[in-house]
């Protein structure tokens, strides 16, 4: 939430309109450069994720005094209260639960084991660091871990949602964003390495790969039948639907939060007296409900891409509140992330060995959690280009479940932290 300063801002840019243009232009430049217009930028973004720059460049603006990230209305109410729930609607309405079920029980089992590994990893890493180095998990560290759980079960939208629900400090959030990118990048590099050796690994473990071959043919036919160029009507319907549902969510959330505050004794403990918590939950529920209707066909017109635009603008608005110089003050958070990720890998690997699942299931199941719809298709395509939609399907499931599961993980961590 934006905090009004008691003193006039000394930043060079004080106009919200000019700030909006600067953030928009910055995001456009980052993504254009990430497309690799020259060999230098292609190599640069092979090592530096565009997502990290979306945090760091606005943070740099704030650090040098070009902008004042907290003395504006760009983040709150525009980005956090409007764009975030709109992104949740658009990112969840594309979920094809029927298609996911057709992928087979083994894949779903491995994917769910990956989610369990994330939840278990949060508890284990917190407890180990409390034994080894208590200052690492002191104070509000649990809040940052809850936000990170949102990212590793769902995606960026869920991470930001948990940031708002638990009111995570902007600098702490930025520090965990570094942990997020570092651990997710290490996992992706490992999975890409294993993808090139999946045939040998599957042969050695005796995995059955026939279901994968069937998937390749079915998904190739689906992609060819549903792809289309969006029309103006498509885009207007997508925008109208997203913001219309956001309005409904806000209209319901305020009286609902007030009712819980007045009638449920433990409402504050579980943040059920917060209108924003209900906005997040209602927006997610609306998107999931729409995924069972013909409205989900808007995905072929780019619904999730528009939702991702909203999400990245929100991420940049969070970044502009960061104290860039303080981002690396707590490197022990990397240790928390490393322990957390090791637990996740051990759980999902053990689940795959239990049901003799192929390496593809391990890769896409793991990255479907940690990387969501943004990175899971990359891992899936490393096994075969036609399998990329499998990563999308599993990644979008996380958008629907990430908010609820990470909220519950946050409650467990809150108890462990004694708060």
From TrEMBL:
<feature type="transmembrane region" description="Helical">
    <location>
        <begin position="274"/>
        <end position="295"/>
    </location>
</feature>
<feature type="transmembrane region" description="Helical">
    <location>
        <begin position="12"/>
        <end position="32"/>
    </location>
</feature>
<keyword id="KW-0472">Membrane</keyword>
<feature type="transmembrane region" description="Helical">
    <location>
        <begin position="172"/>
        <end position="195"/>
    </location>
</feature>
<feature type="transmembrane region" description="Helical">
    <location>
        <begin position="44"/>
        <end position="66"/>
    </location>
</feature>
<feature type="transmembrane region" description="Helical">
    <location>
        <begin position="78"/>
        <end position="95"/>
    </location>
</feature>
<dbReference type="InterPro" id="IPR008537">
    <property type="entry name" value="DUF819"/>
</dbReference>
<feature type="transmembrane region" description="Helical">
    <location>
        <begin position="107"/>
        <end position="129"/>
    </location>
</feature>
<feature type="transmembrane region" description="Helical">
    <location>
        <begin position="390"/>
        <end position="410"/>
    </location>
</feature>
<feature type="transmembrane region" description="Helical">
    <location>
        <begin position="307"/>
        <end position="327"/>
    </location>
</feature>
<feature type="transmembrane region" description="Helical">
    <location>
        <begin position="235"/>
        <end position="262"/>
    </location>
</feature>
<keyword id="KW-0812">Transmembrane</keyword>
<protein>
    <submittedName>
        <fullName>DUF819 family protein</fullName>
    </submittedName>
</protein>
<dbReference type="Pfam" id="PF05684">
    <property type="entry name" value="DUF819"/>
</dbReference>
<keyword id="KW-1133">Transmembrane helix</keyword>
<feature type="transmembrane region" description="Helical">
    <location>
        <begin position="359"/>
        <end position="384"/>
    </location>
</feature>
<feature type="transmembrane region" description="Helical">
    <location>
        <begin position="333"/>
        <end position="352"/>
    </location>
</feature>
